[in-house]
């Protein structure tokens, strides 16, 4: 099955807060990675084209790839958008609605650590108008697979409602916080009207991948040039779909146990 790199970024900044620094790339490195993508012959396409292919629609162009960004950091507007516009590149931005500034006075307490620099609702409208696909990333960024069903629904359906009410049009694309999901969570995401959802899995996606668990390659601060170059040629990672492993199931069981004991595993500190 043809490997489709779906690149996952968080912050693109030279001075990120310490908690997100391991998942941040500098503007210089990000620009270099876009050059590597172009030099490899990959063609960046909108996420919806991959989803359409996964749902039996038109096949993807050869050597396709997708850009995605999670959380909604302010540097997407100041640093990433100018590059995307200049190069004419599509991207999907998944935002955590409770962390966006400017609608209720301030970001919700406890969504992300103090000092996190997040987008405002006003900037979100500007990004939407610029052609960036806006997707949902829940309201408060929880580990959905450890929550009771009613709280999962509030997070996934509530996020959709907030974005659609504010932007004035439907939103279709969702991303699981931390990449964590389960069959029950995916059922709720589907019921809430999301037509695609991205995980992590540190793997390539493909036309045969599950559109409600799209595999992505997370670009981190320690992703070196050679590893990134290998990804652009379809190497150094498995290709989805593949079964959920025992390690993933065990990790979910451990986090659920801690949640039941009111000692939740803190994925973000």
Automatic annotation (TrEMBL):
EC number(s) for this protein? 3.-.-.-
The entry lists its GO molecular-function terms as:
hydrolase activity
From which source organism is this entry?
Streptomyces flavochromogenes
> Which PROSITE patterns does the protein's record reference?
NODB
- Compartment(s) where it occurs, according to its Swiss-Prot or TrEMBL record: Secreted
Name by which UniProt lists this protein:
Polysaccharide deacetylase family protein
Pfam families per record = Polysacc_deac_1 (PF01522)
Q: Which SUPFAM superfamilies match?
A: Glycoside hydrolase/deacetylase (SSF88713)
Position of the signal peptide: none
Q: Which InterPro entries match?
A: Glyco_hydro/deAcase_b/a-brl (IPR011330), NODB_dom (IPR002509), Polysacch_Deacetylase (IPR051398)
Keyword annotations from UniProtKB, A to Z: Hydrolase, Signal
